[in-house]
Structures are given as structure tokens and as C-alpha cells.
Amino acid sequence: MDSSYFFKNDDLILESVLGTVLIFILIVVLTRIFGLKSFSKMTGFDFVITVAIGSILGMSINSSKPSILLGAVILIALFGLNYLVTLLRFKSEKVEDLIDNDPLLIMENGEVLWDNMKASKVTEAELQSKLREANVIRLSQVKAVILETTGEISVLHTTKEDIEVEDYIMGDVIRKHA
User: Whole domain around residue 10: which residue ranges?
Assistant: First the structure.
């Protein structure tokens, strides 16, 4: 192999470094302006936007298609779209219902809701793991286990059997999967 293989396109090194820095700064600024919640726990829509941003970021940095400027414009459009959809979700329950999954009850008062488990494709092993993570010792301690809109599993439990989960906490949770 000829050493020129490693040095062809060396004229693009400065352009690539500057483009990378500019796109990185743009993403940090846009994230600060539009306030993307978190990259670790996302709704389906958040995931799609994050993948799209990553794809545009990677293509803009690693190739000339799209150009750095076009990549920046697309990123601004994606952040703007994310902000607009977030605003619509906040202002309209119909839009929120259209975009987000509803939290689903998969265990209630110590009883596993097998139909909901099957519908949500949560395995028994996943449920058992979450119960252990929550330090549940007995199933009778479990008041509710909920598959959240982000895909996380919440475990509500207590050692006092006379305590019930307040309606407000369970307000948007679907009890029976249709």
C-alpha cells in the first residue's frame, strides 16, 4: 500500500476540523436554547429526533453531503420541529395522545397483569429484575408496576399494606390493555 493513500484529501483536514467544531458548537447552543430534556430517557418522538440529529451531524462532519452550512440549517430545522412538537404536546392533549405512548400498568396490588405484560412485550425476567432493583422482598409490597412512556419501568411499593397509591399518580396509566 502506498503512503499517499493515507494523505489523499489532506486538504479537507482543516475544513473537517472547523466543520466539526462549528457543528458541535451549534448543537450545544441549540440544546441550550430548546432544552432537549435528556438523551437517556426518551419518548419515541425524542428518539427519532435524536437519531436524525446524529445522522445529520455524522454526515455533515464526515462528508461534504450535506455541506456544513446545509447540515447546520437541517439541524436548526430539526431542533425547531422538536420545539414545535413539544409545545403542541404541552398545549394539546390530542397531540400528546397522538405522539406519546400511554403508561401501562403491568402489576397491581401484588398481581401480575399478564395480558398487559404480553401486550407490552415486557418479559417476566425484566419484571423480576425491576422488582429486585426496587428492593421488593414480597409481591404483596407492590402497589403498582408501570411501563412508562419512555420505556422505563416504575415500581411503586411499600411495606405498609394499608397505604394505597393516590389517584393523581395513576391518573394517566392504562389499567387494561385493549
Answer: 4-98
74 plus 129 within the same structural domain: no
* CA gap 1, 8 in Å, rounded: 13
* 68 pLDDT above the threshold of 80: no
Q: Pick from 50, 80, 98: which residue ends a domain?
A: 98
Residue 33 sits in the same domain as residue 72: yes
Q: Which of 98, 122, 147 is the last residue of a domain?
A: 98
Cα–Cα distances in Å, from 146 out to 130, 152, 178? 11, 8, 16
Confidence of residue 32 (pLDDT cuts 50, 70, 90): low
Higher pLDDT, 118 or 23: 118
What are the two backbone dihedrals, phi and then psi, of residue 2, each rounded to the nearest 5 degrees? -80, 140
**123: buried, middle or exposed (CB in 10 Å: 19+, 13-18, 0-12)?**
exposed
- DSSP E strand boundaries for the chain: 104-108, 111-112, 142-147, 153-157
Q: Which three cell numbers stand for residue 42?
A: 426518551
The Cα–Cα gap between 118 and 114 comes to 6
